[in-house]
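Render Dihydrolipoamide acetyltransferase component of pyruvate dehydrogenase complex in 3D.
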Amino acid sequence: MGTHVIKMPDIGEGIAEVELSQWHVKVGDLVVEDQVLADVMTDKAMVDIPSPVHGKVIALGGQPGEVMAVGSVLISIEVEGAGNLKESAAPAAVKEAPVAPKVEAAVESKPAAAAAPRPAAVCQGPMVAREADERPLASPAVRKHALDLGIQLRLVRGSGPAGRVLHEDLEAYLAQGQSNASAPAAAAYAQRHDEEQIQVIGMRRKIAQRMQDATQRAAHFSYVEEIDVTAIEELRAHLNEKHGASRGKLTLLPFLVRALVVALRDFPQMNARYDDEAQVITRLGAVHVGVATQSDVGLMVPVVRHAEARSLWDSAAEISRLANAARNGKASRDELSGSTITLTSLGALGGIVSTPVLNLPEVAIVGVNKIVERPMVVKGQVVIRKMMNLSSSFDHRVVDGMDAALFIQAIRGLLEQPATLFVE
């Protein structure tokens, strides 16, 4: 038998150290080639570290949350063959994720290679006993799913690597256990004393640092404007009915991107980045719109590049493509960075007002709230209109309050008179 030592790989971009975010194996586990061993976190991305060999884990080189230098020992694996010590840097499989102030992103591990198929999720009994302070292995998406279902993860038997709890395990738990249906209804009102401590590491720590940095360095102020979107919604419905089958369905987002592009012609100070250390404001002609995208693993912000050169359907197709790539963890680093202004929306859950946090070094972020039907007075008559708020934030070091108000009112005018979006 021999020992294969895997060192922390050089991920590129001059990075000298990375944070060990999560182990997917433990000492004693048998691993196969290409199986994900660990996740590490750089300033810009979550990175999978796969195994280059088959073997048995005999030593781990660090703990989650530990910052490790490139070239340091990550893991030691016992392999078949000669007893000489082998060293390698495992190839890094990058899972891109933006680290913007508003981003909440974590990445699930890849499944094991085909040589070791994942076992079917079979719950061998309704629950498994764990210590009260033992935190079972599970991805953020599985934890959220369990929370939505009202399931305590420590009671669920995990069928994944190292006992990792999968979505299938939650379904098996519900099918076989379902909180002991025979238990008295009063159990639902029983006192609870359990606690869970969650270590702030990896992407969550980067987000926390960037959020704190953004709120400390920028002078945030927000401006809210009400918009009548009845006409633009009628136009959107008409275009979808006429061209949806051949060109694809349009959401409101491409219209909002178009409104940003047109409004920025008169307000170039909003499409800018501020280097507060060099005291330099860079105004950009290119409009690279960051579009917040919700996924099972958190909020990501892919970038629609050169929005100023795109038609409605081109923007719609690019937004859809980027959203799918982000949700599947396949977006590239370039697709998740380089925005000049950000558009953030919670869709139907958008509430009536929000206070988005700037994505430094940008100086403006436009927040979209939900559309609601309300009675409005139009030309002396009470009519039902579709109304929506824009809740936007700006960096007061660069943007004056009046300019911000006029910018959002310009967007309002374009959306309320949608023909003006296309008048050159």
